[in-house]
Structures
1.
Amino acid sequence: MSEGIRDKVAIIGVGCSRFGERWDAGIEDLIKEASVEACEDAGIEIRDIQAIWLGTAQGSQQTGGVPTGIVVSQSLQTQGTPVTRVENACASGQEAVRGAAYGVASGAYDLVMAIGAEKLKDTGYGGLGGGAPGKWEPVYGAFGSAPGRYAMAATAYFAKYGLAFEEGKRILAEISVKSHYYGVKNPKAHLRREVTVEEVLNAPLIAWPLGLFDCCGVTDGAAAAIMVPASMAKKYRKDYINIKGIGISAGAGWGKEREDYDFTYWDATQMAARQAYSEAGIKDVHKQIDLVELHDCFSIAELIATESLFLCEAGKYKQEFTDRRAYYHDGEMPVNVSGGLKSFGHPIGASGCRETYEICKQIQGKAQEPSRQIKDAMIGLSHNQGGHPGRFVCGVIIYGMP
Amino acid sequence: MEGIVSYGAYIPIYRLSGEIVRQVWGGGTRGERAVANADEDSLTMGVEAARVCLQGIDKCTVDALYFASTTAPYKEKQSASIIAAALDLREDIVTADFSDSLRSATTALRLALDSVKSGSVNRVLLIGSDCRIPPPNSDLELVFGDGAVALLIGRDASIQIEGSFHTSSEFVDIWRLEYDKLPKRWEDRFVAEQGYLPHMQKAIFALLRAHNLAVKDIAKACFYAHDARGHRNMARVLGLDITQVQEPLFDKALEEAKIGDRMLLANYGDGADAYVIRVAGEVRGNGGSVRRYLESKMMLDNYGKYIKFRNLMEFEQTPEHTPRTSLSQIWRERKWVYRCHGHKCQKCGKVQFPLQKYCMYCQADEKLLEEVSLSDKKGTLFTFSIDERAPVIDPPNVLAAVNLEGGCRFFSQMTDRHVKNIKVGMPMELTFRRIHDALGIHNYFWKCKPAR
């Protein structure tokens, strides 16, 4: 009988680079920035680390190639330390955390580091570069873009719950307003400007019904977390954070092609959540979870992920979250008070690790700006998702005080 | 007797109007012409016409496919074979492309008749399709129209082809060299007086003589002309009454034909072809496709769009949007890429697309999955989005999830759509399109479109 990961692994240090269009930094700089902060936070040296997991979707897109773990050893001058590069699209960061945690839990290592990193802004164009016709498949879905595919979920959600276009857009706009509100309160965030609902509603369309402010930007950045066996954590610091549960689900991938797939709830997200809740012993999400960092690459992604993580009844987002402002830091269920992917930024492979960073800092009472510090947070949920509706790989990790 | 067993036509949805042309070039251009969408070419339009033609016909009876066009998408690589796959025809058939002459379709018709008469084939599917680019700012700009026609040629046909007459001529009037995008031509008066009128007259009168027919015996005459004036002059020279002259859309003539009618069909280019056709029985309907396609149209709202459709200017290329493809992958996946085959699970009954290794509903192994054809299924729109930033020739890119009748969700791009009119629940159908060009390869696949 498997025992699960609960309370076996502790995080003793986290680091995060400044996110943004980092014309000044390559992927090596970003990895160093995050790793050095994590080591300082843990009170260790880079050479103490026994193994490293790197989560990155493409590393540095400028090269056009897929990097190996060497990009880490080159950045940090580790001399032969094992580095495993993992990839699960936008969920690569959490995959690194998972790999590192299991490395410790297996007893193979006593001190490991997970890094998520992505350098997107050396390509010469604005988007992610996934939009080239036939890049992934010669003909099938040859023209799918992330906004185009997520927007189908928004259309379906509006249709299913009878929301007029303006009504639905307003619910989504409130989410983006909240993300930007917290981006301002985060010195490391990419987008640091407040926006109003009207601004969001009047912004140019990207993929109907989603507009400019419904979409996260294209960001450079890296984040890192250092882990040890929970039994050894006290040696490093008092306020270490334990991993309570990990769930990961690779959806069957044929969602958009199934007649019973309605786009408005995401089964991979639900499955990952169930696994993580079960492992962490979460019975009542509302009572037990104090903050959520979830994968809001689009406003509709935040809405549906909130419902699919069972934080909200399906179709009741407006009543339970928008109207009650539940997702603010002083609300009933704070969501993405870091600014989220939307405002903190979304360097593909870094986001999962960046969520770890935010949750640890919140639980430790060390949010960079006290004005967004959540009171007495003990348990946090991190949700990281790669792909697009109908074709998700999804991870959920629960972190908490020992 | 041999003749036309069934027929179908296709006219693309877009129209270029004289008003739009005048806005750019001035002058007094009037009327409108059909313009193939950015994702259409002669090959895809041919597929659409043939799909109309083959409605209710057992596709296994087609033994040959002849494709005639002066604008085949490949210089080397047959179009007929791609069309045959998109139509889900048998593999053991004869396919051939007829090209280079404006007369290639009517010449292919003679060869199709001969093939049937010889007994070597049962039925020939003949497709004529063209997407010629008129020189911008010329009198041809609204004369050339894009479209396709398909005729199923066989025995015991209700539309009987009684006979034909053909001439060949080295006369040069309009031409394109290998790398020419636009046609070149000699002075129109020379072309009319020395080429078009005498060549057509000669063939038509020779044909009528051979069949002991007079001009008055013709119920409807359908013949080619390079423009409306040429068409009028030809009718005058032949001594045709206005009631006998069919506007130059042969299929429309068939749509309106009555039993007992005798029709004349004549075509010009490098000589002339002329046919006498008798409507002997009930004309096999094609759902009035010509009328339907003429009526359902979308006006191009600016000339820039037309320039992009036909690639008449150079545009910015970003490294982000360098398209890719893979011929080996398409070959592996040809059953669903070209033939639009899906799977029907023998265990749970669910229909699914594309072809699967296991049933996506009950996980039954592919041994239990039966291939079914989906291209003719109608559907309704389940959800969609409108991507303003996608690198498509005719933005925005509409992504759509369509539920097909009899089960099956079809996820694809939506084409031939008024963006403002798209609504969840609207009726949809599938269409074969050239979805993008990459590495110098035309990539064909199925899209959905609002039912037309």
Note: The radius of gyration of chain A is 19 Å.
2.
Amino acid sequence: MHELEALQTVYSDIVALGASLVVISPQQPTYVSDMAKKHKLAFPILWDERCITATAFGLTFELPDDLREVYRSCFGIDLATHNGDCSWCLPVPARFVIDHAGRIASVEADPDYTCRPEPEASLAHLRKVVGAS
Amino acid sequence: MSLEEKLASVRAQVATMIPPEKQQIMHRATANLRASGIMDRILPTGAPAPAFELTNHDGRRVASADLLEGGPMLLSFFRGSW
């Protein structure tokens, strides 16, 4: 959640560069919609049903059984309900800059989901791509 | 406050709320994921980005090809708001 709020703070900079910002999540739109309104998120948050797009980018993994139990008992999170997918798959949190030709210009990803790149770092990658075109 | 500072405070909060044996499961899962070689499977710089057309939370369809016509894209994969 902090990450999406942080991305919102640089959204006007992204638009000013003539670029777009898109968030992709396996979480069903009904859950996402309330959050987007509450935090006034202006960018699209797209539903990646069964992590199909995340899989195409090489990001998808399945949570092991013991971790599923921790999510249920300690955090009250049932991913099967949230995602509408009984497989408990998630993407590794990742950010890509894609240039206008559709090529990946930068990748930031970490299997430790508690680490996220600063939005300014992603913005710097985007500026390089805009400057090069 | 930077994003990392906010996340550090979340980490500290989780460390006080969650029993140590459950935290161990979480840490082990992250270590196993890293060891699984997933970082080598993530598409690298220079690779063509897979196209997508997905539904926004407001019901609109959004296609990557349409957005890229207007300029470059910052694409962020998000686990969920839970």
Note: The beta strands of chain B are 53-56, 61-63, 73-77.
